[in-house]
Amino acid sequence: FLQFVFHTYTTGFTLLNGNGTVKVEEYPLQQKQIFYGLGAISYAACIGALPLLFMNRYTLKSSVTQLVVKKLLPAPLLGLMSAFTVAVVRSPEFENGIEVMDRNGKVVGVSQKAGEKAVKETALSRAVLFGTTFFLPALLTYFVERAKFAKTPRALASVRMFMITSVLAGMLPVSLSMFPQCGEIKRTDLEPEILSSTEETELFYNRGI
Fold first, then answer.
1. What order do you get walking across the sheet with 107-111 strand by strand?
2. pLDDT, tens digit, 9 for 90 and up, residues 87-128
3. Beta strands at 107-111 and 202-206: parallel, antiparallel or unpaired
4. Residue 24: band (very low, low, confident or very high) from pLDDT cuts 50, 70, 90
5. Dist. CA 187–CA 203, nearest whole Å
6. How far is 4 from 171, CA to CA, in rounded Å?
7. Gyration radius of the chain over CA positions
8. How far apart, in whole angstroms, are the C-alpha atoms of residue 163 and residue 182?
9. Count of C-beta atoms within a 10 Å radius of residue 66
10. What is residue 120's predicted lDDT score, i.e. its pLDDT?
11. How far is the C-alpha of 42 from the C-alpha of 48, rounded, in Å?
């Protein structure tokens, strides 16, 4: 359930902050994205919970299994599924293309390749953000627990929450600055119809968040 809630929030954020080139009145964009989003959320939540369900189903209770399944595996899975939901919800952007502009802000065309680049960059930044935010605190908490710095479960939970908050606060600007909001793409990487409409060597697009 918590996996479902988390991916619902991040998917809604992605839906609201994508590139809005394709208008709703021209294409049933919102309806398609909502259906895609619901499917992506359900899939991501199930994949995120699968290792724990597998461990409980087959009663794998060794310390190594507990460490891998409960501490180490959830973070990369969460990062991967966060990137997956971005790619699914924003798939109309590389299916239909996004606007590309010259240095003066004049729109010179709609490019699928620019849309693909924008979605890939956003998905990667989202994976780095959530993967790191949940991996580092889990790893550090494990060492704190082994060293017995936190004497009670409440103290350990407080330490873990502090670590998650600190890493998230540090990783958020890193994630947002990995790729510029106004992305660049070389003219030679674009479609032939755009090549014929401008002489600019570099064009720009809105990446979204």
1. 107-111, 98-101, 202-206, 182-186
2. 999 988 888 889 999 888 888 989 999 999 999 999 999 999
3. unpaired
4. very low
5. 6
6. 23
7. 21
8. 32
9. 12
10. 95
11. 10
Q: How far is CA 107 from the centre of its chain?
A: 28
| pLDDT, tens digit (0-9, with 9 covering 90-100), for 52-86 | 777 677 666 666 766 677 777 888 888 999 999 99
Q: What is the DSSP string of 27-54?
A: S-HHHHHHHHHHHHHHHHHHHHHHHHHH
Which residues, other chains included, contact 101 with Cβ-Cβ below 8 Å and sequence gap of 6+? 107, 108, 203, 204, 205
What is the enclosing helix (H) or strand (E) of 204?
Answer: strand 202-206
Interatomic CA distance for residues 121 and 135, integer angstroms: 21
Residue 46 CA to residue 172 CA, distance in Å, equals 26
Paired tokens of 194: 């755009």
pLDDT at 28 over 70: no
Q: Specify whether the CB–CB gap between 193 and 109 falls below 8 A.
A: yes
Q: What token pair was written down for 106?
A: 């004049």
Going by pLDDT thresholds of 50, 70 and 90, the confidence category of residue 22 is: low
Rounded Cα gap, residues 120 and 126, in angstroms: 10
The pTM assigned to this predicted structure is: 0.83
Rounded to whole angstroms, how far apart are CA atoms 84 and 26? Answer: 26
Q: What are the Cα distances from residue 128, in Å, to 51, 59, 134, 135, 206?
A: 21, 32, 10, 10, 20
